[in-house]
Amino acid sequence: MTVMDDLTKEQRHRAMSHIKATDTKIEVLLRKHLWKKGIRYRKNYALLPGKPDIVISKYRIAIFCDSEFFHGKDWDSLKPRLLKGNNGDFWVNKISKNISRDEKVNKQLKALGWTVLRFWGADIKKNTGDCLKTIEEAVFEAEIGKEDW
Predict the structure, then answer these.
(1) Signed CA dihedral, 21, 47, 71, 101: sign only
(2) Band (13; pLDDT cuts 50, 70, 90)
(3) Hey, how many other C-beta atoms are within 10 angstroms of the C-beta on 28?
(4) Residue 136, Cβ neighbours under 10 Å: how many?
(5) How far are the Cα atoms of 3, 38, 75 from residue 127, in angstroms, in the given order?
(6) For residue 63, which of 40, 37, 82 has the smallest C-alpha distance?
(7) Phi and psi at residue 90, in whole multiples of 5°?
């Protein structure tokens, strides 16, 4: 049982309508740290498949900040729990589509020559330094790759 199971349909709708698609806390947190490091970026870049949350266009790096629930972290254990709850079929279908879309977007971006980085929200919150290190390594690799041009 989740907190959402105890809500009426109207209360659940109101709660879900307040979930933001852009400028989430995890995106803002990661962007602030990137800015402090001197890494410049574009946000919610609509010219690329999937509209990445953060794009470092100079190095062709697309970054997604994924929430655990909507993007299906630990899907093998989450899926059975959802099926037992209210509206389980709806949530399993929605999250399954999100997972498939994420995989498709990753393939499209890689085919276009982009490096794709995806971070879970909890990792951004708890291990921001590790996320930054991964991004810095991708920037370094891209910089080395540019020298080969």
Answers:
(1) positive
(2) low
(3) 14
(4) 13
(5) 26, 19, 22
(6) 40
(7) -60, -50
Q: What is the 3-state secondary structure (H, E, C) of the chain?
A: CCHHHHCCHHHHHHHHHCCCCCCCHHHHHHHHHHHHCCCCCEECCCCCCCCCCEEEHHHCEEEEEECCCCCCCCHHHHHHHHHHCCCHHHHHHHHHHHHHHHHHHHHHHHHCCCEEEEEEHHHHHHCHHHHHHHHHHHHHHHHHHHHCC
* Statement: residue 1 has pLDDT above 50: no
Distance CA 64, CA 27 (A): 8
The strand order across the sheet containing 115-120 reads 42-43, 54-56, 61-66, 115-120
User: pTM of the entire structure?
Assistant: 0.83
Do β-strands 61-66 and 115-120 pair in parallel, antiparallel, or remain unpaired?
A: parallel
Residue 33 corresponds to which amino acid?
Answer: H
